[in-house]
Amino acid sequence: MTIHPEDLLSAEERLKRLHERLGGIAYGGDYNPEQWPREVWLEDARLMQQAGVNLVTLAVFSWSRLEITDGVFDFGWLDDVMDLMHAHGIGVDLATPDAVPPAWLVEQHPDIMPERADGSIFGFGSRQHFDVSHPVYRAKSLALTEKMGERYAQHPALRMWHVGNEYGPTSYGPWAEKAFRTWLQRKYASLDELNQAWSTTVWGQHYTDWNQVRVPAQPRTWSNPSRRLDFHRFTSDSMLEHFKAERDILRRHSPDLPIVTNFMRFYKTNDYWAWAAEEDAAALDIYPDPREADAHVSAALNFDLMRSLRQGQPWMVMEQATGAVSQWSVNVSKLPGKMRLGSYQAIAQGADSILFFQWRQAKGGTERYHSAMVNHAGPNTRIFREVCELGQELKSLGGLTGTRSTAKVAIVFDWDCWWALELGNSPRSDLNYAQEVLRFYRPLFEANVTVDFVNANSDLSPYSLVIMPASYLLTDESAARFGKYVSDGGRLVVSYLSGVVDEDNTIRLGGYPGALRNVLGAWSEEMHPLAGEDEQVKLSTPDGGTSAASYWTEHLHAGTAEVLASYASGRLAGVPAVTRNAFGQGTALYLSARLDDDLHRLLLSEELHAAGVVPELDVPAGVQVRRRAGTKADGTARSFLLVLNHNDAPVQVDVHDGGTDLLSDRPVQGTVEVEANGVLILEEKVASWHWDWTRLRRQSSGRSRTRSAATSLEAGSWRSNGIGACTHC
To answer: Rounded mean pLDDT of 507-516?
Structure first.
């Protein structure tokens, strides 16, 4: 079958058809019937119907059960399960099972196993035990993908494809080394160009033949940071190349079905910006630690990142837990109501599916204590009752699918920065890039400001405020893009360790942050990370206010920039610490230190206020509000306001004009009580003749502006520290 490009549907259209076939939001999870005798399968199908399940993921770990030995296949059991699901009205997300090469393949080709940087070899018995560059692994997994595409593309239960599982193994073995060399030859026109990019004159590492270029395996001490950065890029690209090869096989057999793989929370190995562009949807495995009271905040960051990877397109929760998971040192189970609340949080932040790992809790194997939709005790349990209740509720939310959120604030999250910053050759080897980003995200989340994520190559024009936490690596083109954004009237916030190196991980000379000196109107002559974990220095503001900084400081010079705070103690006493620069029509704020929470929040609140950014509603602390909006098939507008109470006590929320609560099917307006860990999902009244996002935002939030985003960032707390009053608040 030949597929012509003009015959292919868009990713958005494939997802639309998926949810039409499912009847709304996707609900279900991984199903592993091969772990159970056949007499359990029928009970599973009946319980799935009871729970409202409309989609299950099959065959993720089934290679050894589908290809019994080399070239000998047994699809009969999977045929029966596919038929059973269809007979019970349950769709299938069918996986290619190449995350787990079978024992017979490893025995035939033991060099399929990945090699660690220290030369040790992975052992059989876990997952992801393959070098993705190995030609036999590639050939065998693609052959199995071809057979599955041929056999199941037209099966009436099939709704989408799931390629692999949590791509991630990094190999330093001979096959990876050969592929790395080929990748470098494509990137660099010559060895001279590679030598220049890698600064090989340092420590005498000059190459004179391509065969001398090897993977950056474990060195005696430190190794070349530019070489290691390229190896990170290669590793992500090589796995993505294999994903695309499988995707293209499946696309040829079923051009109208979505194809995805599952991403992971704060996962460093793969550049998800590049990956998401090759998939029909971003899909996330998310496992917040129930022991952390604020785990929902880092989960929210990951949710917004997933929504942003494909420019606001709805995404998928591919895996989450009903209760306890397997990876934490103490696997605390979620309290009653938390699974439901976390599911609605994902929906509020753009998800159109709620799937779990897994349907039935395994009685053996590594993940036997990972909770499931049906736990060891069976269906007569609290968790299964919650699963059923959520499944029934989601049936009333079909109108949400396909709707989107709009943000006026963006945070830069870039894998090149992440890799370059954490290679261990920087002034602080303990710096955690994801936590730096979370530190800027947290106050915005708490203020109910919707945030998009962008990378260094994104279009910045939709945003009134852009924040760059530790954006260490910037190309010349990216630096120019941020400069133009500010010059055209944007507001930019930049933290320390930004713009320091170019795309080759080479230091930009002339002072830090080299790529952004002009737009910031300031430069640092020396980095001064603070030695002690609890060491602090005092800060002062021109009006006599005081604050503090920890972890990081710099010897900063203010050129054209205004000084907002200076160091008041330590070796940098009297030196500027925070500056704001007028550049063209916009402004750029630079934070050369890790400010204490009060000043950090104050400065962000001022930037939000100046950028005209307001929250959706004025609500008590611990309450999250998001809006999703779009159009119906007839072109009329639709808008949904989602209110989530992350507190363990009820709260009062003024929803103003309100709308129809989809979970109770009753009208709601004015001040209402939202129960502890409860949710409110309102379909708002929107004029059918016109869609105007700005007008809708004013309608829902205009009457609550006595407490704007600026003041909701706890702006009052800084006054007790003596910092001067906010002129905007």
So the answer is: 96
pLDDT at 623 over 50: yes
Shared domain check, 383 and 325: yes
Confidence band of 729 (pLDDT split at 50, 70, 90): very low
Residue 222 has a CB neighbour count (10 Å cut-off) of 11
Is the pLDDT confidence value at 701 over 50? no
Q: Which of 67, 177, 279, 319 is catalytic?
A: 319
319 flagged as catalytic: yes
Per-residue burial over 88-98, b = 16 or more CB atoms within 10 Å of its CB, e = otherwise: eebbbbbbbbb
Is the pLDDT reported for residue 692 higher than 50?
no
| Annotated catalytic residue 607 | no
- Looking up residue 283, the CATH number of its domain turns out to be 3.20.20.80
Q: Is residue 102's pLDDT more than 90?
A: yes
Contact yes or no for 591/495 (Cβ under 8 A)? yes
| Stretch 38-61: mean pLDDT | 98
**Spatial CB neighbours of 344, under 8 Å, sequence gap ≥ 6:** 642, 644, 679, 681
User: Do 680 and 642 touch, CB atoms closer than 8 A?
Assistant: yes
- Residue 379 identity: P
Domain end (from 400, 426, 458):
400
| pLDDT-derived band at 221, boundaries 50, 70, 90 | low
Which amino acid is residue 89, in one-letter code?
A: G
| Burial (0-12, 13-18, 19+ Cβ within 10 Å), 257 | buried
Tokens of 685: 């009244």
**The one-letter amino acid at 615:** P
Nearest in space to 628 (alpha carbons), one of 682, 579, 577: 682
Which pLDDT band holds residue 533 (cuts at 50, 70, 90)?
A: confident
Q: Give the amino acid at 668.
A: V
Query: Active-site residue among 166, 246, 422, 606?
Result: 166
Residues 391 and 424 grouped into a single domain = no
454 Cβ contact partners less than 8 Å away, ≥ 6 residues apart:
308, 410, 411, 412, 413, 460, 463, 466
Whole-number pLDDT of residue 220 = 63
SS (H, E, C) 478-500: HHHHHHHHHHCCCEEEEECCCCC
Find where tokens 């989809």 sit: 662
pLDDT reported for residue 5 = 53
Say if residue 722's pLDDT is above 50: no
Using the predicted structure, report yes or no on whether residue 508 has a pLDDT greater than 50.
Answer: yes
Give every CB contact of residue 13 below 8 A, 6+ residues apart in sequence.
Answer: none
For the domain that residue 665 is a member of, what is the CATH number? 2.60.40.1180
Structural contact between residues 159 and 18, judged by C-beta atoms closer than 8 angstroms: yes
Tokens 């779009």 sit on residue: 630
What is the pLDDT at residue 7? 53
- Rounded Cα distance between 386 and 333, Å, is 14
Look at the chain and count its residues: 729
Phi, psi of 483 (to 5 degrees): -65, -45
Q: What is the pLDDT of residue 721?
A: 36
First to last CA, the chain: 64
Q: Could you tell me if 20 and 132 lie in one domain? A: yes
Query: Which residue in the block uniquely carries the two structure tokens 């000196």?
Result: 517
Q: Which residue has the higher pLDDT, 154 or 706?
A: 154
Nearest CA to 319 among 372, 368, 243, 257? Answer: 372
Name the residue with tokens 């099939």: 158
**Nearest CA among 628, 612, 598, 623 for reference residue 715:** 598
Pair 137, 130: CB distance under 8 Å = yes
- Its domain, for residue 679, covers 623-692
Tokens for 707, please give them. Answer: 């407490």
**Which residues neighbour 446 within 8 Å (Cβ) at sequence distance 6 or greater?**
297, 621, 712, 713
pTM strictly above 0.85: yes
CA distances from 549 to 429, 599, 687 (A): 19, 9, 50
187 in a domain, yes or no? no
